Amino acid sequence: MRLSTRSRYSCRALIDMLINGVEAEPVPLSNIAERQKVSEKYLEQLFIILKKAGIVRAIRGVKGGYVLAKRPDEISMGDILRLTELDISPVKCSKCERKEECIFKDYWDSLGGKIKDFVNSITFEDIRQRAITIKVGKEPIGKMSISEFTKGIKRLKKQRDAVILVHNYERKEIQELADYLGDSLDLSRIAAKLPEKVIIFCGVRFMAESAKILSPDKTVLIPRIDAGCPLADMITVEELKEMKKKYPSAKVVCYVNTYADIKAESDICCTSANAVEVVESLKADKIIFVPDKNLGNYVAQNTEKEIIPWYGYCYVHDLIKVDEIEEQKKLHPNATVMVHPETKPEVVKIADYVLGTGGMVKLAKSSDINEFIVGTEEGLVNRLQNENPEKKFYLPRRKPLCSNMKKTRLKDLYYSLKNMQYRFEIADNVLKKAQRALKRMIKIG
Predict the structure, then answer these.
(1) pTM beyond 0.70, yes or no
(2) Tens digit of pLDDT for each residue in 43-69?
(3) What CATH superfamily is the domain 232-316?
(4) Residue 43 burial (C-beta neighbours within 10 Å; 0-12, 13-18, 19+)
(5) Between 20 and 30 A from 51 (CA), which of 130, 277, 350, 424?
(6) Taking the domain 320-394, which CATH number applies?
């Protein structure tokens, strides 16, 4: 699929408005046209489409122009591509006479679904913040400078008796403010043992939930309540209950990358590091494994038990391709390949090490290996490089990026501490059951 000029310039024009506009003041098309080096008349045609769709609205008068009609976090890249491309499917099987007998149709449909999931997951707020991240330290964000936000965060943290937990995939500037940096479960374990009364979790929602499950008496905050996880969203309680009915003798193992209600319906939780060990600990021949099919496949390859996987996946890891890893191996023949078990089976097959983020951090620190090809989200490389400045780390050419992990900015962290937002509360009956599943796993190690 090749994007049209119309799509590319629509996206560029919108991000131009966000980066160069001043709050709600209208931005003249002539200014956008000059900066983007495109005809103003051409932009007028594009903005008619965007206006009809309710993406932008026109302000008349001498100081007129265009403003966004929605918040940037309410506009996805998918919204714009559907407006300008109409159909973003890679292959238009609906017009093919042989679609019912074509063996490739399911593959094209699956590819189309992944493209849609990917573009729908990226908002214009994500893109704007990525632009800010590139310029971090050089320009102010809003009315406060970066240094003012940083000082304010440190001051408020002391006032609130708070500890800042940051996941390995978060932005570099957020990682730098972490009291503890790591993967989601290790951070939650640490928080449960700390004296601070407030936990602020810079990650996605299920991570903050896990912290609340293990520290029910503490206040748990997340700076961005809209920081979700598409993988965790891929299974519901109703769907899990149906699976349990279908396989009544099976035990349920749920990946920690799930919400509290799924944990509450499971026998035990697991991480990417201990999934095989958890499965082996159960006295059952059949295991329902939710929600990641790739991690489930990895477990199936390392146990004699029957694994019944759910068809979920992490789009970030699922999009890492064998040819991207092989391309890096050709460029860096002495590098060791370490990939996350959420990657596809064919990627796992060519890796030297299959590890969660915590395992990758340990291997980079403790081994004599000097070069690594890293098959996981790009944020981890910030940490790996900081902790091992003498070593080299290479990502796939299309750097894997989780848009939800990049939502938390300095501004969000500051206001989360200032306003004590957004708090996590979990119903007692759900919390106790989810806590039981997590604690069973923790006993295993």
Answers:
(1) no
(2) 999 999 999 998 998 888 777 788 888
(3) NadA-like (3.40.50.10800)
(4) buried
(5) 130
(6) 3.40.50.10800
